[in-house]
Structure formats: C-alpha cells, structure tokens
From TrEMBL:
GO BP term (any one): response to stress
One of the Pfam families matching this protein, by short name: MarR_2
Domain of life: Bacteria
Organism for this UniProt entry: Marinicauda algicola
Single GO molecular function: DNA-binding transcription factor activity
Protein name per its UniProtKB record: MarR family transcriptional regulator
C-alpha cells in the first residue's frame, strides 16, 4: 500500500467511529442522523429553507425534505413564511428542537481523548493538513462549500511575522496561529471568486509580509 492508501484507511477508520457515534447519539434522542444534523444547523445558523439545508448537509432535497417533515411532526421544527419570499417558507428550530440539538452536539470523549494524545505542534500540523484536504474536496465538488478560514473573506494568511500567530482574522481583528484555524465558523463569509486563489496561495506558505493579501473586506466587525 502507498502512503495515500494508508492515510485513506486511517481516515476511514475514524469516519467509521464518528458515524457510529452519530447514530448512537441521534438514536438516543429519537432522531435519525440527518434529522440531528438539521437541528444542529438550524440551532447554530438560524432559520433556513429546505434547499439551503440540503446544500449545507450535502444531501438530496427529498432527503432533507423527508427529515424536515419528520422533525415538524415531532415538534422540533416549525415552518414559517419566508419574509423575503411569500411563496417560500423557512424552517425554525423550536425550544424542544434546540434541546434535542444540544443532546446530540457533544463530541465523544474517546475522540477528544485521542486528539489529546497529539502534541500542540502535531495538532497544528494535522489541522493544516485537514484544511488542505477539505479544501481540495470542496474544489473537486465532492463536498459542499465549507465555512473555513482558508475560504473566508476575513482571512489574512501569513501577514504577521510572529510564527506562533502568522494569520489574521479581520472579523475579530486578531492574529492567530495554525492551531486555531477554523473548519466550521459561524462568522465565515466566502471570499470573492477572484480573490480565492491568491488567498489560498498565501495560506500555503508565502513568507510573512510577502503574501498578496486579499482586498480589505468591507463591513467588518471589530
Ligand atoms: S471569520 Fe471565522 S472563518 Fe473567517 S477568518 Fe475569521 S475565524 Fe476564520
């Protein structure tokens, strides 16, 4: 086997564990894994249309629609008119839906313990490697667009001389290091298509101060 297949095998083993944990947690809350993912999405990101949920979760629209219908019957989700489009409706998590989401949104202790066996440097390297792999899957259209730093208009990679904190988040106006790269950030906004490549190349390793920073984002929070 090549290193590629060793890595793929390792990822598959971790994926198997996570899938079985997702099933176990969702089952304990009387949900399917897709229902649990919908509740988590509505709770974290607010009301959404079925089409947006399907896109965010990487499932077909009928699958998202069936799961949403089951959640409505269970009282975890309510459908309200979309104020932006009278013909459309938005799904909202109810109070019981938010409680169910909290029950199923806990990372397994076994996984956190396994991550804990890595040293700080190993975690930072692993996180950067995951960022590269996830971004490539996104570029190839294999997974939906991810809300991660490497594709965010607020990300300023390698703009600081401090090796411990070379990157900058323009949303919170703070420097940060590789170990704090986000793979699923609520504040993420996609970079313009024309800036995305320069952003990525800067992230991949242009020395501090030489990277072409993407244009300043507008409407940034401080
Ligand atoms: S807003 Fe979030 S995703 Fe964007 S750069 Fe800041 S931390 Fe990263």
């Amino acid at each position: 086997m090549t290193t590629h297949t060793h890595i793929a095998t390792g990822l598959a083993k971790i994926g198997l564990f996570l899938r079985s944990e997702n099933w176990r947690q969702a089952d304990a809350a009387d949900l399917s894994p897709t229902q649990a993912q919908i509740l988590a999405h509505l709770t974290r990101r607010g009301p959404a249309r079925v089409t947006a949920l399907a896109e965010a979760l990487g499932v077909t629209q009928p699958t998202a629609s069936d799961a949403a219908g089951a959640l409505i019957r269970k009282g975890h989700v309510a459908r309200h008119p979309d104020p932006d489009d009278a013909r459309a409706s938005l799904l909202h998590a109810t109070a019981s839906g938010r409680r169910a989401a909290a029950e199923t949104a806990v990372w397994p202790d076994a996984l956190l313990g396994a991550i804990d066996t890595l040293g700080a440097d190993e975690r930072a390297i692993f996180l950067k490697a995951l960022t590269k792999m996830i971004r490539e899957l996104q570029v190839r259209g294999a997974i939906p667009v991810q809300r991660m730093c490497a594709t965010c208009r607020f990300f300023r990679p390698n703009v600081h001389g401090d090796p411990a904190a070379p990157h900058h988040c323009a949303f919170v106006d703070a420097a940060f290091g590789e170990a704090s790269l986000r793979l699923d950030c609520d504040e993420h906004e996609p970079a313009d298509t024309s800036d995305a490549d320069a952003l990525w190349q800067s992230f991949l390793g242009a020395p501090a101060g030489q990277a072409d920073a993407p244009p300043a984002a507008t409407g940034e929070a401080s």
